[in-house]
Amino acid sequence: MTPRPNAAPQLLRRLRGANPAVALHSRGLRPTASAPAPDAPRRIAPRVLQPLPSRSFTSSPDSASSSPASSASSSASPSSSADATFTTVSPDEVSHFNALASSWWDPHGPSRILHLMNPLRHDFIRSCRSSVLDATPPSTSGLTYLDIGCGGGIFAESAARLPGTKHVKAIDPTPGVLAVAKAHARRDPGVQGKLEYLNTSIEKLPVPEAPENKFDVVSVFEVLEHVSNPAEFLDRCTPFVRPGGWLVMSTIARTWMSWFTTNLMAEDVLRIVPRGTHDWNKYVNEDELRGHFLGKRTGWTDARCMGVIYVPGIGWREVQGSEKVGNYFFAVRRAA
């Protein structure tokens, strides 16, 4: 049945009358929770649709003009921003993930879907690297990785175990989570000498001056949707990729379907993800990433994308075209 043309305005007026918070915002739509009256019994409030402006995928003018992504021999500083204290790290996100630290390595706990996703991360990296002829192959001693926002080390530790890996440097600004990662790595003698953890943000990590000291793979898995400014954040990551190397990431598209699956179903209904983990307004669409690297920046090529869907009881599966509605992997290669 086709709704009447004036149905949406009538619904919005009803929402405003039922929830004063709705009247504070009048553009865009985003799920949120209504606060109960002071004397009302405590209960879990359902999410309602509430207006909210959408975040734009842009970086500051200084960062864009001085971005080191245009050449492999960039300046050692990630950005020429005048504010040396600038960070894309969100304190709320750090607090949220600190609270999850103790359960990070529980394969049936709150991080279960990350454990299930990890094999696909390696599959995607292998497919990217095998898709082009590398004019500047990595050292015969093995690949080097920089894992940004490594969390408890699920990917970093698994990458260090690979026989073709020379070294993995993994960083995260969340001290509680990183302590768990270090403690877990100490239990595996196979990663000793190959895995290094640092409690820092990408803004504070020194960039290697020599191209040969940069990384074959820079990974940013499930991080982009948790930072304050995604474009600025990526501009801080790109100087670490060696010529011919790959910047590989995974994130979530900003669509109604992703809100339904990741916010409503995953957090509120199925409870397979802790509530408050995702902010729909921070999601990033695949075309925004493609436009950023291939349109607004130079020196990047061979963009790759793979959409994935989580099937409860089965796990993650690659589904062609699903990058337009939900979770996906994205990668670009620095021109050699």
Automatic annotation (TrEMBL):
InterPro entries referenced in this protein's UniProt entry, alphabetically: Methyltransf_11, SAM-dependent_MTases_sf, UbiG_MeTrfase
Positions contributing to S-adenosyl-L-methionine binding: R121, G149, D172, F221
Topology versus the membrane: Peripheral membrane protein
Pathway: Cofactor biosynthesis; ubiquinone biosynthesis
Signal peptide span: none
Region spans: Disordered: 1-87
Domain of life: Eukaryota
Ranges in a coiled coil: none
Composition bias type Low complexity, residue spans: 59-84
Domain annotation Methyltransferase type: ranges: 146-249
Keyword field: Magnesium, Membrane, Metal-binding, Methyltransferase, Mitochondrion, Mitochondrion inner membrane, S-adenosyl-L-methionine, Transferase, Ubiquinone biosynthesis
Pfam short name (any one): Methyltransf_11
Top EC class of this enzyme: transferase
GO BP, one annotated term: methylation
Cofactor(s) required for function per UniProt: Mg(2+)
Catalytic activity: a 3-demethylubiquinol + S-adenosyl-L-methionine = a ubiquinol + S-adenosyl-L-homocysteine + H(+); a 3,4-dihydroxy-5-(all-trans-polyprenyl)benzoate + S-adenosyl-L-methionine = a 4-hydroxy-3-methoxy-5-(all-trans-polyprenyl)benzoate + S-adenosyl-L-homocysteine + H(+); a 3-demethylubiquinone + S-adenosyl-L-methionine = a ubiquinone + S-adenosyl-L-homocysteine
Subcellular location, record wording: Mitochondrion inner membrane
Residues the entry annotates as binding Mg(2+): E222, E225, H226
GO molecular function: 3-demethylubiquinol 3-O-methyltransferase activity; metal ion binding; polyprenyldihydroxybenzoate methyltransferase activity
HAMAP family listed in its UniProt record: UbiG (MF_00472)
Subunit structure: Component of a multi-subunit COQ enzyme complex, composed of at least COQ3, COQ4, COQ5, COQ6, COQ7 and COQ9.
NCBIfam families given in the database record: UbiG
Protein name per its UniProtKB record: Ubiquinone biosynthesis O-methyltransferase, mitochondrial
Native source organism of the sequence: Neoarthrinium moseri
Gene: COQ3
